[in-house]
Write a structure and sequence with these properties.
The chain has helices at 30-33, 57-72, 91-94, 162-171, 178-182, 190-202, 214-223, 228-237, 256-265, 271-280, 308-325, 341-354, 411-416; strands spanning 2-8, 17-20, 34-38, 41-44, 46-51, 98-106, 109-117, 122-131, 134-144, 149-155, 242-253, 282-293, 298-302, 329-332, 359-363, 381-386, 392-396. By secondary structure, it is α+β, with helices and mostly antiparallel strands. It folds into 2 domains: 1-204 and 328-424, Rossmann fold; 214-321, no CATH class.
């Protein structure tokens, strides 16, 4: 689970901002919001980020997603550049360094991981492991910018022997993280293996408003990794008149030209399946359909015939099953996309009531949710705001004192009238536009 995540000089974020999941001392909604993975560390299961358009709220989770990709997909050549955009409204930051800091828990152990980088190289990288409340260094890496090589200059006593450190150095290009270098070697390290596993299996890729999860969710249902019965139950509870889900196989005949196109375009089909397609000259696809029932009628509708809201909720039900049954972290941008406000609230209530070891990081414009104090904690609500220099500020509702928001006052009203900031500063309704008169 994430304790906190900090980022600087990334997109509209100039100065370091920190998103924290550490719960305050309040016991409000304790059983719904708070999980204690290690004794004394109380973490929230959700962070809701509000803010106006272009304020940087999506960038917070994009940065976390970029960090994940930086670890799991190391560049293959030292001449390749790290593709990202630093803060562009300051000449010092355009060529300056960017940084990520991640405090997290995996395999019952707390780690602090820090990376400083620019478009050419990972300049500095440090991993700490906590023993009780005291951090000890696992490794520290720097890049020799002139020679374009990686140096692991310090390691902890329980890390790796000298030969393994040398092998890891040689595998880690100056534009790779050490974790990325580890993925390219046969070096054995329980610590590095656990952390890579966390980035790969626990921290999930960001879900954007246009992300189509249909294939992902349907495939995992077929494999049993998402429980079909749970998704069906969730759909039934959503008042969509869906009684059951059908998975129907469809054989599509292929000619040589189509087979060649599939093998060139598709990269995620296993080699064994590719060979089977070539041999049988057909592709077996799966279509999802829903059985709708009323008191008197039953009918089948293909997935594509359902409303966008039903399609979106089916996808989110698969994510919800994973959040409830497993330990994972899902960043979701504009979670309310295509959903009725009541259905969104229903989704969040189910998550908070049933998930135990997972975390949700969501951005949203749905401010009416702030009316429901009975399901909200102040320390779980965050805001992004654009500062005068054009950069992003990130702050928590818990940062405001009681003169701004009392326990009994409306968060919604405070936000709507601007007491919490993070709102667009709009001009008046009148504007002079050039308007060519019609020829008479």
């Amino acid at each position: 689970m994430i304790i906190n995540f900090s980022v600087s000089n990334f997109g509209p974020i100039k100065d370091e901002v920190t998103l924290s999941f550490e719960a305050d001392k309040s016991t409000n909604l304790e059983n719904y919001y708070v999980y204690e993975p290690i004794k004394g560390i109380r973490l929230l299961k959700i962070a809701l980020i509000y803010g106006s358009n272009a304020s940087g709220k999506s960038t917070v989770i994009e940065a976390l997603n970029f960090f994940r990709d930086l670890v799991l997909n190391p560049l293959e050549k030292k001449t390749e550049t790290i593709k990202y955009t630093p803060f562009l409204l300051d000449k010092d930051t355009i060529e300056g360094d960017s940084s990520f800091k991640l405090n997290f828990i995996t395999a019952n152990t707390r780690y602090h991981y820090e990376v400083v980088f620019n478009k050419k190289a990972i300049k500095k990288e440090v991993l700490y492991k906590y023993n009780s409340n005291k951090p000890s260094i696992v490794y520290k890496r720097i890049s020799d910018i002139e020679k374009q090589i990686t140096k692991i200059e310090k390691t902890g006593k329980d890390f790796l022997n000298k030969d393994s450190v040398t092998a890891l150095e040689n595998a880690t290009l100056w534009n790779n993280t050490v974790l990325g270098g580890f993925l390219k070697t046969n070096v054995e390290s329980t610590i590095l293996k656990d952390i890579v596993h966390w980035f790969d299996r626990k921290l999930k890729p960001m879900i954007a408003p246009k992300t189509d999860l249909y294939g992902y969710v349907s495939s995992k249902i077929e494999k049993g990794e998402i429980h079909k019965s749970n998704v069906t139950t969730l759909l039934k509870k959503a008042d969509l008149m869906i009684d059951s889900i059908l998975f129907e196989k469809e054989e599509i005949p292929l000619d040589d030209e189509m087979i060649e196109a599939i093998t060139k375009i598709t990269t995620n089909i296993p080699e064994k399946e590719i060979e089977e397609i070539k041999t049988k000259k057909k592709f077996v696809s799966t279509k999802v359909a829903f059985i709708h029932k009323t008191d008197t009628v039953s009918c089948k509708l293909d997935y594509t015939d359902e409303s966008l809201g039903t399609q979106r909720f089916y996808q989110l039900c698969g994510i919800l099953d994973l959040l409830i049954r497993t330990e994972c972290i899902f960043p979701i941008d504009e979670i309310e996309n295509s959903l009725h406000p009541d259905l969104l609230e229903h989704f969040l209530r189910i998550y908070l009531a049933n998930a135990k070891k997972s975390q949700l990081i969501v951005t949203t414009h749905y401010r009416e949710l702030l009316m429901n104090r009975e399901i909200l904690r102040n320390d779980a609500i965050w805001f992004t705001e654009k500062k005068k220099n054009g950069s992003t500020d990130l702050f928590c509702l818990d940062d405001f004192d009681s003169s701004v928001v009392r326990d009994t006052s409306s968060i919604y009203n405070a936000y709507k009238i601007g007491k919490l900031g993070a709102k667009p500063n709009l001009g008046d309704y009148y504007i002079d536009l050039e308007n060519d008169e019609e020829d008479k």
